[in-house]
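chain below, 144 aa
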Amino acid sequence: MAREYIQAERGVERMRGEAKDCTVRALACAKGISYDEAHAHMKAYGRVDRKGVQARPLYIAYAAAGFELTGIYGTTANARWMQRWFPNIKRHRGTSLKKLLPSLSKGRYIVGMRGHVFAVVDGVVMDYGYLSTGLYVTNIYKLG
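prediction:
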């Protein structure tokens, strides 16, 4: 069986010299703000340049930007950890990006996968390059 991929729409251009900034790019695309605004916001909540962000500070930064954690998916280590920190968030069975995309056709979302996040705006995936549709989703944030 051949692996399926979805080509993501290019969102915002990253800052020169920046790396591991998917959390910043996802925020900029999903919220409709500039990369610089998103970068400053994430930095205010503890993101260090050229470094990734752990789940708890990421949750706090996204909540401050108006996003709500609406679901935790699967039984990965990240999903189990998030369930312990956020017991009031609904937990779902594991699902792939392909199965989940139709339910994200209206609204602004940030979708988390193991080690990566990206934006989905009205059903359009906003990221760089291609994403495998078989990858499993770990969490979803929804704007407002």
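The first strand starts at residue 5 and ends at 7. The CA atoms of residues 41 and 61 lie 7 Å apart.
thats it, cya
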